[in-house]
């Protein structure tokens, strides 16, 4: 198939590459022309502007927008809405809030433009491993785009088949699903990322415990000098906690078991937050997902007002003076 | 009554004072003789050693130990166990783990020495407001010591009586209870402190939210410049969250609304920890009490291994580089 | 002053009463005419409709809306917007989301109608104790309405003055504050309720621990048969955890220490949820407030999908079959 | 090698099998003789008693105890201590608390008996996949037992090697490590299980969110009818949350997407609890691991005292009556 791709950063560039390697024709655009040149060498057609891209594509046109969620994506889609024609398709492959997808689809409907949200997991490894995709779309539009998803997805790979699985549609086993109508793709991806936060925090807390037990601050007879790189490695084999995140942990610790060059500040993105908003809206208890998010908030702060107030109360009732930090 | 008091720090000194003002005779001992001299002027008899104290007391002797929990208390009680006679009473008024109380009482039983655990709340305000006491003891021993507790307790005060309360024993209304057998006093005090951690953290998080909403980092039209001293003050009157901790908060914020001289490191003590151990042992979910404790742990750390590992994983799967702290 | 009050439920009716007792003239309206008749006997003027109320009020008119947040309040304010004139004032005293206040004030601005949000705490006790109020309004409008707030507020009472407090404006000490511009009143009230959830949960967890320690399921030598009504009572006097919520706990336990007639399902309202949304939006860690909310979510559910999935995983990796509930 | 195995349940029986298939000679004992007969057919030598087993083994003897932690293991080791001779080795492969390991090793030392703790992960899949083992032992004892661990472990398998790993000892890559001195094996296994709880709860919360979003209680335009079996399946391929626990989830949902036959009560075992005790002891914040444990506690309870107390307070301050459950 032919499609346009807007935004050729870490994710967009590799999506373009994987599509081209799979035989699709890509018209590429990025604000930063330098970024595009590498792709041109690999076979992409270059469009200097959105208008140029739309001209270069044959109707019905498919445009994959792979930009930061929020303003950049919103502005681009608004511009495309003016340029595209009935029957054309806009795919938002970024990390958009699912309610924004629903709003946009409704706004595009009178123009006859179809909107598709693709939650995409795979990060920097996607070019090699393939992308795991959760798609929100009208059923026919999803089917029409199937060749693209088929190319991007990992496929069966050498993963053991799920025992007892007996579903007529094998696309989930090849790495992509039609999650439901517009919004469903990003909803599922949002929850995916919420879970990701929880998983990461579970490992982080466990390794912190083991590192603390190895601390020279402990009396020698209470201390275990654990080799955390070996622990991560051994858990990869046959243990209940084996996972891709553990593989990455083993990899990080193999090279640098002390992780000293990190500052301890951990960013969070929209999806972790929206997951908690959804939990609050839906009345679902998510203590683990919420606390994982809160841990990241705290990681970026020192000396919070909350903590100072605790000290002030402790002084107030007990005359306690905190020890120096 | 006559009694000995060992440990004349912030708590012990004021307990001695309040008892003397109530007409009791105090024989006082502290490792630091300087501390004792002020009390002597106020009428205390001074004992230079535990042996001297025991000699000075008439049988059956009552000795109130008011020392830091753990080693100092343990060592003193072991020494007293050698010096005291059958029928004598040791009171541990400190913050001892309740299982240690039970162990000690069992060890003293063959010697005929009675053991009493008194959970004491009131902090630096106790001299003035009286002490709230939860006592673990044999029933007869508790009754024998009643005059001491009666003097130390706040009494009815001008607090409104609890509607519907119709208990024959009014000691709870005067500020002390016989919680149960040995250990029960410190158990109840332990839970009291666990709750205290939760309450404090609830206020701290709420005030942090309001402070953050007042932050100059926010665009002006999203910001409220809240006067947190006024908020604390107004909540003292007629609101659902009024409490003594809120009174202390109002007091702290009246003098220093920014709380800038605190470092944000908040200490914790045994009881907050034992409460969570008890919850784990008893299979009771205590997410609020546990998270309040964990917040204090985090307050004293920067750049934890857990957070660095999160960053390492984020780099591993997404090539994310954390922003500077 | 003269004012209209719409909504004469538990809160609105008592607000009307307290205002009339303070010498203000009230024009009252409620969908349910029966509710109004009691107030008429106490001196209220009755308006059968919003239009009738607006006619009955002298310009500039003040109308206090005291209805459930959301649709009922929104619809009433929309109707009032059509009936009122420039210079008139609408007060929303309910539990509205603060961003809705800001939106409404902006919508009313072109009509010259002023909007005021009043966060009101005090519950069923307000008639007697007075209401604690946090007001969001233009400064001049707040000052104009001062006589109303002055009447409704608890006043100084016999509460000890806050040491070190030296603020020129004593309204906080009398029970109401100008929190800031429109929205600020409900924002502060929202955080108030968020804190309330945290405080309540802290007590609940602590009492659960003590009840569990009194359980006959425990071997006798591990059990304390704690009198929880006495514990609550004794903590009211001189302890660090004394509060109004503890007073209410003591009252509930005095009458019914087992609390057997409650089902264990606990409702939550908008403010507890919005507090967590605000925390997520502002990037503030609120583990205690969030977990308190989640505990309520869980209290209303049995046999969740989450728990069933845990069992399914446990069966999957270990062949574990859960014991019967 | 020759060794004795005591306890032939789910774990012990398969460990015996895997060892025999690897060429080791097993003397087997179980309280329940019926259990042993299957193993005898597969080549095990049967010992009717511990004494018989000890006689049957050649010195230096190795005895692997694979019993429930606590009393059964403790009693067996005490008996073995009387029967064994200097130079013999006791292996505890169960889920023992690591401080018990240390205590036992100290008690056995004067007798010249070596003690080894093996944290074993792999559950019912171990026979097929191999067991992941974390061993606490004196270095020479660990090396002496190496052939056993080598047989039991999964080996390299077809797992991708960890990039950047460059450790001289490849045993971690084959599925077992010498974690450290006695106790270190079970310590690492304890943390492993703590992490396991956190991971499981993260998935559980996420799937609950998606199930709730599919609920017919929602208005149709807010609902996504998500196919959770497909979601689990698609995430197995290329997503950040892929893991063995996700594989098991996909398997469970393939057969029974509603999981209706589970009651929602989820058991917990010692290790999840000890992990939190360790966190409290070491002063490490583990909100995710603790909340995962607390969720299990709550899953087994209805109508807790904590929740009833919340309702009582709500009635007290607001006259709120909870809606029926």
Automatic annotation (TrEMBL), chains A, B, C, D:
Protein species of origin: Modicisalibacter tunisiensis
Classification via SMART domains: 6PGD (SM01350)
Pathway participation: Carbohydrate degradation; pentose phosphate pathway
Keywords annotated in UniProt: Gluconate utilization, Oxidoreductase
NCBIfam families documented for this protein: gnd_rel, PRK09599.1
Coiled-coil boundaries: none
Protein name per its UniProtKB record: Decarboxylating 6-phosphogluconate dehydrogenase
InterPro entries linked to this entry: 6-PGluconate_DH-like_C_sf, 6DGDH_YqeC, 6PGD_dom2, 6PGDH_C, 6PGDH_NADP-bd, HIBADH-related, NAD(P)-bd_dom_sf, Pgluconate_DH
Pfam families, alphabetized: 6PGD, NAD_binding_2
Family under the similarity heading: Belongs to the 6-phosphogluconate dehydrogenase family.
Domain 6-phosphogluconate dehydrogenase C-terminal: 185-320
